[in-house]
Every structure is written in structure tokens, then in C-alpha cells.
């Protein structure tokens, strides 16, 4: 059996964190909107007295200082957020920064008035605007600091969510690799034991079995590259056929197999070693223990509703209590709980594995694998 190329599965990409560029574009847009509203309000209030340019002048001279100073509020808020200080200490720092902000705003307006209209006009502005400008400065600083802190908190929450998602994804991949890793040595040890037993009975049959086993070994080794790799269903079917042929050397006519394969599904992608553990469980629990043996039915079809791949592995053995199948038995196959967990991790909960069995009613596993 030749092993085809293994197709890595796609991993969902995590969303990037917000950039500094978006933050400052938003801040610039908010400043321009505030300036425009200030101009419109000034024009409306002074209708018949003030011209448009006078409203523009008032808006510009009133807002240029807080808009420029507002850009300095962000690094202050970011610096305080990085500190592990108590809330009271951070509030005290913000209060001090608010006073500095107000004083700087007032100083900027006074210096502008001095440069444009002289010292007397600047002194008059200082006397008239000292108190209310300080109050307005504190309020504006509080609004800016609240906005920037909200942005920083949102970024921190998003970064924490991304880190948690990455950690969960890494843990899931590690667990998936561990589960998949259990399948490979288990199959190898059981097959080697069968070949050893066969050499004592039929050396020629054992030689044929070794040839098949070499091809199967290549497939198993290739499947160990990544736990989330994919192979074509046809490759897995060929692998299972070789495995069944190898088991037939040991079981002879006691092992019968029926295939029902929709040729349109043979190119579908599935995880390697999807069917073989299920077939192995059928042989170990449903066929080998019975003197008369039994029949294994394997089918693959396209789900008409979801367009997913529907697989079924069934035997006509004695069956058992479904609860017992969830418990792995040492040396007796792979527990269905491990297989369910593998598909849950591999397909993020989208794949389905359902068991149908009861004492005297055989054993059937229905597996649905998404293809989109």
C-alpha cells in the first residue's frame, strides 16, 4: 500500500489586537468633530453679530490647547495602568495630572493672547478665566482619561482572551497528539504479536503478512507528523484493507468483511487512523472471541443534508452495555471515550461519533466528519 501526501488542516486564525494607528485616528476624528460642533454652536448663538470666521477663531483658540494636551493623557493613563498601585494611589496621580493639564491649558491660552493682543489682554484673560478654566480642565481631563482607560482595558481584555485562546488551542493540540500517539504504538504492538503467532503456524502466510505490514508501517509513520494532519479517505480505506488482510491470515474464514463505499467520498479528508481503531475494536470484541467469527460492515457516504462524510463501522457480534465501551481496557483496543475526545478536539466539536450497541445486537459506530 502506498501512502499519499498528508494534508495539514487549517487552524483558525486569532483576531489581531487594535493598533495605535486606529487609536490616534479615532482621537483625531473626535477632536475634529468637537471643533466643528463648537464652530456651528458659536455661529448659531451669535447669529447676526458674529461672522463664520469669528466662530472658527473662537473654536480654534479655545480648543487647540486641550486637543494637543489630550494626546499626553494617553501615555499617562497607560503608565498608571502598568503599575500595580492601589486604586487610591492611581486616582491621586490622575488628580495631580488633571491639575497640571488645567494649568497647561490656561497657560497656553494666556500665551496665545499675549502674542496676539499684548500683555494687558493676557492679564485680563487670566483674571477672568482662572477659576472656570481650571474646573473645565479637570472635567476635560477626566473625560479623556476615562476614554483612554476604557480603550486600554478593552485591549487588555482582548489580549487576555487571545492568550487564553492560544493556551487552550495549544493544550488541545497537545491532548490530541497524545491521543493520536496512543493509536500508533497500540496498532503496531498488536500487529507484531499477530505476526509472531503466525510464524509458528504458517511461515509463508507470515511472509505475506510482513510485506503488507511494511506498507502499513509507512502509513503509520507518515501519520505521526502532526496530530491534526489529514489524509484522503481512499488512503485510509487502503490501509484498513491491508490491516484486514493481515488479520485474515490469522482468523481465516472467521473474518468476513462487507464494503459499501460511495466513490464520491473517496477524496474526502479525514484524520489518519480514523477507521482502523474502530475496525480493530470490532475484531477484538465482536469477531475474535466467537468460534464462528463474524462480519464487519464498513460504509462511507455523502450526507445529503450537510454534505459531510458519513462513515459507519459495524459488526454482528455479541454487543454489550454501551457504558462499558467508554472504559479503556488494557490490551483490548482503544476506548471509545478517547476516540470521541480525539474528534472533539480535532474538529472543535463539529464532528460526531455515536455508538449503537446492546447485548446480543452487535456493535455499530456512526461517524460524521465535516468537509467544509
TrEMBL record:
Record-annotated membrane-spanning stretches: 24-43, 63-80, 92-114, 134-152
SUPFAM superfamilies, alphabetized: ATPase domain of HSP90 chaperone/DNA topoisomerase II/histidine kinase (SSF55874)
Alphabetized Pfam families for the sequence: HATPase_c, His_kinase
Molecular function terms from GO: phosphorelay sensor kinase activity
Keywords: Kinase, Membrane, Transferase, Transmembrane, Transmembrane helix
Domain Histidine kinase: from-to ranges: 275-372
InterPro entries: Bact_2-comp_sensor_kinase, HATPase_C_sf, HATPase_dom, His_kinase_dom, Sig_transdc_His_kin_internal
GO annotations of cellular component type: membrane
Name of the protein: Histidine kinase
Amino acid at each position: 500500500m502506498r501512502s499519499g501526501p498528508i494534508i495539514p488542516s487549517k487552524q483558525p486564525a486569532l483576531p489581531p489586537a487594535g493598533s495605535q494607528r486606529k487609536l490616534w485616528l479615532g482621537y483625531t476624528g473626535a477632536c475634529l468633530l468637537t471643533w466643528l460642533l463648537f464652530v456651528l454652536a458659536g455661529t448659531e448663538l451669535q447669529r447676526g453679530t458674529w461672522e463664520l470666521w469669528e466662530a472658527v477663531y473662537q473654536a480654534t483658540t479655545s480648543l487647540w490647547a486641550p486637543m494637543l494636551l489630550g494626546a499626553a493623557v494617553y501615555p499617562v493613563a497607560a503608565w498608571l495602568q502598568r503599575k500595580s498601585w492601589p486604586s487610591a494611589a492611581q486616582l491621586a496621580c490622575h488628580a495631580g495630572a488633571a491639575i497640571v493639564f488645567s494649568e497647561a491649558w490656561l497657560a497656553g491660552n494666556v500665551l496665545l493672547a499675549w502674542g496676539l493682543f499684548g500683555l494687558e489682554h493676557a492679564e485680563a484673560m487670566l483674571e477672568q478665566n482662572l477659576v472656570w478654566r481650571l474646573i473645565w480642565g479637570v472635567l476635560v481631563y477626566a473625560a479623556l482619561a476615562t476614554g483612554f482607560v476604557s480603550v486600554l482595558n478593552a485591549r487588555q481584555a482582548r489580549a487576555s482572551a487571545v492568550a487564553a485562546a492560544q493556551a487552550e488551542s495549544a493544550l488541545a493540540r497537545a491532548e490530541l497528539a497524545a491521543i493520536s500517539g496512543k493509536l500508533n504504538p497500540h496498532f503496531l504492538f498488536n500487529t507484531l504479536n499477530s505476526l509472531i503467532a503466525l510464524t509458528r503456524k504458517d511461515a509463508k502466510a507470515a511472509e505475506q503478512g510482513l510485506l503488507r505490514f511494511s506498507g502499513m508501517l509507512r502509513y503509520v509513520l507518515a501519520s505521526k507528523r502532526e496530530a491534526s494532519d489529514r489524509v484522503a479517505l481512499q488512503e485510509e480505506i487502503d490501509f484498513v484493507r491491508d490491516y484486514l488482510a493481515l488479520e485474515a491470515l490469522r482468523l481465516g474464514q472467521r473474518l468476513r468483511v462487507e464494503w459499501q463505499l460511495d466513490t464520491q467520498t473517496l477524496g474526502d479528508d479525514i484524520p489518519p487512523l480514523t477507521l482502523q481503531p474502530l475496525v480493530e475494536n470490532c475484531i477484538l470484541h465482536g469477531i475474535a472471541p466467537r468460534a464462528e467469527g463474524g462480519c464487519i460492515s464498513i460504509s462511507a457516504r455523502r450526507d445529503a443534508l450537510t454534505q459531510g462524510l458519513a462513515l459507519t463501522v459495524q459488526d454482528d457480534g455479541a454487543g454489550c452495555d454501551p457504558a462499558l465501551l467508554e472504559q479503556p481496557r488494557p490490551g483490548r483496543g482503544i476506548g471509545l471515550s478517547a476516540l470521541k475526545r480525539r474528534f472533539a478536539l480535532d474538529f472543535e466539536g463539529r464532528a460526531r461519533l455515536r455508538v449503537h450497541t446492546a447485548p446480543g445486537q452487535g456493535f455499530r459506530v456512526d461517524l460524521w466528519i465535516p468537509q467544509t
